Q: What sequence folds into this?
């Protein structure tokens, strides 16, 4: 069972057991405009919930990416390095990183899809 | 927050609206990259009504403008506008602006929106020993810029075929539906194009006609910045500010040392003693985009900072403008830019990111 949640800083996380995929929301990609570059972390590195793990750059500016829960990077989406525009086209399918969750306690504080959609129309 | 007369148009066109220099302005209508391309390959229109219009009039207006501005302003009326800087006593830049010598005793300054009040106050303070009046009429003027290879065709049909005769930086007053508008062959994109000044209602009419009849693409501040960056044109608050001299910013062409003006002494000293810094181009070799204020290093020593940086449409690598220590400004040298927590390699290059398309 995969559950989708959203952070206040517009990342989404799809949790399945102790594994999760993380991306940015449709609202975020729309606000950013044309994404031209992604800066993703090293596999194996660990980040606490709320910590910056990378950045996403639109034509206009750089925006930091924050961890919705604590975890260790197990994969980065290589396809986005050559085709960052996929984030604009399919934000909820374009995961940036996969992690092994080390502490899921923050997950409960995240917004479900309906609450997030309501907060960011 | 101020709005330009075209604000309702920006809303109607579903622009992303952002606060800029005290105005609610369109950042983009569709996408910055698309709007950028439209200007390079077709034609785009910008609402630049937020820019300031300051008039200097009076018996000694010619003497006054030449005393406060770095460039030589010829006696009006002229058909040639002049790019110039307004400097303080230290030779640092208060603003950059375009001067239209309208009459022998009447000069129009078009200044940056973010600096209009500061410039106006500064100019007022300099009037003591001159018989001049300075008026800030920014609120009575709208301004649009129509830029790109098809701009001349649009202006010829929409206003007058006479506009085709103007060359870069030439201007003239032309009639449009009973109103007199200032038509200037100038812009901030590196393309051929025009800037039009008129009362807000007339500007709104021109805007709608350009969009509806001539299919000109509305473009926001986002594309305005990528376009001026690609053309390596300075932006106040980035390449130039009140800690920068015109010489450091590569704007010596707008400084006339053969006349007296505020800031002349420190600037001629700087010329004698060596200009401390220089604006260079950077080509990023590593991964990342060097953005404004990121620090630039050479062999571990800080040598300056990035003033503007983008990964532009049609460019394979990210580019940047940077203000660095002049002795380090050697073309082809490798430097490093700190991007977030990483040192990313970059190469110093010229600032000619594109060939300008001005009508000479």
A:
């Amino acid at each position: 069972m995969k559950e989708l949640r959203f952070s206040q800083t517009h990342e989404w996380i799809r949790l399945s057991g102790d594994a999760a995929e993380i991306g940015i929301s449709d609202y975020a990609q729309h606000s950013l405009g044309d994404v031209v570059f992604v800066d993703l972390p090293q596999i194996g590195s660990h980040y606490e919930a709320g910590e910056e793990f990378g950045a996403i750059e639109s034509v206009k500016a750089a925006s930091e990416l924050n961890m919705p829960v604590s975890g260790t990077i197990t994969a980065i989406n290589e396809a986005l390095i050559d085709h960052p525009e996929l984030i604009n086209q399919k934000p909820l399918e374009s995961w940036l990183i996969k992690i092994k969750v080390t502490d899921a306690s923050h997950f409960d504080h995240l917004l479900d899809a309906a609450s997030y959609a309501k907060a960011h129309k | 927050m101020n709005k330009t007369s075209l604000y309702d148009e920006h809303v109607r066109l579903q622009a992303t609206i952002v606060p800029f220099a005290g105005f609610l302005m369109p950042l983009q209508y569709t996408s910055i990259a698309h709007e950028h391309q439209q200007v390079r390959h077709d034609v785009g229109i910008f609402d630049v009504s937020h820019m300031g219009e300051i008039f200097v009039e009076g018996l000694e207006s010619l003497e006054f403008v030449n005393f406060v501005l770095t460039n030589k302003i010829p006696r009006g009326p002229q058909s040639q506008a002049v790019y110039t800087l307004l400097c303080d006593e230290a030779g640092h830049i208060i603003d950059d602006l375009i001067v239209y010598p309208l009459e022998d005793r009447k000069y129009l300054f078009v200044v940056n929106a973010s600096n209009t009040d500061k410039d106006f106050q500064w100019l007022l303070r300099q009037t003591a020993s001159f018989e001049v009046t300075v008026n800030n009429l920014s609120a009575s003027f709208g301004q649009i810029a129509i830029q790109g290879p098809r701009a001349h065709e649009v202006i010829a049909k929409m206003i007058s075929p006479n506009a085709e005769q103007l060359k870069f930086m030439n201007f003239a007053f032309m009639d449009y539906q009973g109103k007199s508008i200032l038509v200037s062959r100038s812009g901030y994109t590196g393309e051929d194009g025009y800037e039009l000044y008129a009362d807000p209602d007339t500007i709104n009419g021109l805007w709608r006609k350009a969009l509806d009849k001539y299919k000109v693409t509305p473009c926001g501040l986002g594309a305005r910045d990528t376009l001026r960056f690609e053309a390596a044109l300075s932006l106040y608050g980035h390449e130039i500010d009140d800690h920068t001299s015109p010489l450091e910013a590569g704007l010596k062409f707008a400084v006339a040392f053969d006349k007296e003006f505020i800031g002349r002494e420190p600037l001629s000293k700087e010329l004698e003693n060596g200009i401390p810094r220089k604006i260079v181009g950077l080509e990023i070799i590593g991964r990342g985009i060097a953005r404004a204020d990121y620090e630039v290093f050479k062999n571990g020593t800080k040598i300056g900072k990035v003033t503007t940086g983008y990964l532009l449409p049609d460019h394979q690598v990210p580019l940047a403008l940077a203000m660095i220590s002049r002795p380090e400004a050697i073309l082809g040298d490798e430097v490093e830019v700190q991007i977030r927590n990483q040192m990313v390699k970059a190469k110093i290059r010229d600032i000619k990111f594109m060939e300008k398309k001005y009508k000479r």
Remarks:
- The radius of gyration of chain A is 13 Å.
